[in-house]
Write a structure and sequence with these properties.
Blueprint lengths: L22 H4 L16 E2 L4 E5 L6 H9 L4 H14 L20 E7 L4 E8 L5 H11 L4 E3 H10 L10 H14 L12 H8 L4 H12 L6 E6 L5 E7 L20 E4 L3 E7 L1 H5 L3 H10 L4 H15 L4 H4 L4 E7 L3 E8 L10 E5 L4 E5 L1 E4 L7
Parallel strand pairs: 4-5, 11-14
Antiparallel strand pairs: 1-11, 2-6, 2-12, 3-4, 3-7, 6-7, 8-9, 9-10, 10-11, 12-13
């Protein structure tokens, strides 16, 4: 198969990123139209390097310290995301993560260790904060890959993990506000003249907190942090951890703990992960897809765009449907080249540009994702 990086790209008026003759990649071609952006050359190419979703930018330094000291790549990735899991102000993972529709925080995570080709995963875990480390413990201490639900909680307790209430007061109040807005029985709803009074009382008149809560209600976050690490020897590992979709049906599991979707690592090639609407990623096995594209010679950013193209193809390029969700991919190869692509050019907090975090051994910084659709979208 001719590599994507050596093709001309075309799109329909509704799909920025589908190939002319894309039948070989997407099943059948989309309508041809304007010329697509020329694929970008991946940034990076130096080792060690770590990348993550944007919410990990202040945590990558801890992981880089481990890499520079000769530590294991998975240890470095898990150490970084643990900082985010511990942060009550990050309501997308770990402690303080926004809960399911019943007000219960449920966490998911996965890890993959490139040097030994092992994996571990947990899903629908309650009362244990550091699920990335729990997934790593599954990998190290059992002959299983995935443990879920109360079984995962009991396993964690047996392994010495502390149980705790993961719902912070901040997250609890946002959950109550969501119920008041969306439920017929939990009033006042947003159509009530009492709504503003209720919100002011709930958040002690703090306008910033009220605005934040209303944003979370209007646009439920899918949360998540993906983190990938490459050391000086070219060894690769990764982890993805999340509190999942806000207000989800209890027991819902997205792509984060699914090996091959929310995370995939092959020590011979590199690793990839995702944040955003997990259901859409699961359907195309995005992590595995990206790594396989890199195996064929694609640069990380182009492999991420390829995966997004398959998501768009599932909806025949219908932007109205695609605009109901957002999706981000991250990838790094064993040479230290890295890249990230987003379905839309914006973050959830529109209209800021979608970004991801990079630490190249000198500093942690944010870089722009390569957008598949060069416009605002992704309303949940």
């Amino acid at each position: 198969m001719e590599l994507w990086t050596r093709r001309k790209f075309f799109v329909s008026s509704v799909v920025g990123g589908a190939l002319a003759g894309a039948g070989r990649l997407f099943g059948r071609g989309l309508e041809e139209g304007t010329i697509y952006r020329v694929p970008t050359v991946a940034a990076g190419g130096s080792r060690p390097v770590m990348i993550s979703s944007a919410n990990g930018v202040n945590a990558l330094g801890r992981g880089m310290e481990i890499l520079k000291a000769g530590g294991d790549t998975l240890e470095a990735a898990v150490a970084a995301v643990t900082i985010v899991e511990d942060d009550p102000n990050d309501d997308s993972v770990g402690y303080g993560g926004l809960p399911n529709e019943e007000g219960v925080v449920e966490l998911d995570a996965s890890v993959m260790h490139g040097p030994t080709r092992r994996a571990g995963s947990v899903a629908s875990v309650q009362k244990i904060k550091n699920v990335a480390r729990l997934a790593k413990t599954v990998m190290e201490r059992t002959n299983h890959v995935m443990i879920v639900g109360d079984g995962a909680r009991r396993f964690g307790v047996a392994e010495g993990f502390e149980e705790m209430n993961l719902l912070t007061e901040h997250s609890r109040k946002i959950w109550l506000a969501w119920k008041a807005k969306t439920s017929f029985n939990w009033r006042p709803g947003i159509d009530s003249p009492e709504w503003k009074e209720y919100m002011a009382q709930l958040f002690d008149g703090d306008a910033e907190k009220i605005a934040y809560a209303e944003e979370r209600i209007a646009h439920p976050i899918t949360g998540t942090i993906n983190c990938l690490a490459v050391n000086a020897k070219g060894e690769v590992s990764g982890t993805t951890t999340t509190s999942g979709l806000s207000w989800k049906i209890p027991g819902r599991v997205g792509d984060s703990p699914i090996i091959g979707a929310g995370l995939y690592v092959d020590g011979d090639v590199g690793g990839a992960g995702s944040t955003g609407k997990g259901e859409e990623n699961i359907k195309i096995s995005g992590g595995h897809t990206i790594v396989e594209m890199m195996r064929k010679g694609m640069k990380p950013v182009d492999a991420c765009l390829e995966a997004l193209g398959r998501v768009a193809r599932n909806y025949n390029g219908d932007k109205k449907k695609l605009a109901t969700f957002h999706l981000f991919f991250y990838a790094v190869n064993k040479d230290g080249e890295y890249g990230s692509a987003s379905l839309w050019k914006n973050t959830y907090a529109r209209p800021k540009p979608a970004r991801f975090a990079v630490h190249d051994g000198t500093e942690a910084r944010l870089e722009n994702c390569k957008p598949f659709f060069d416009e605002i979208g992704g309303d949940e």
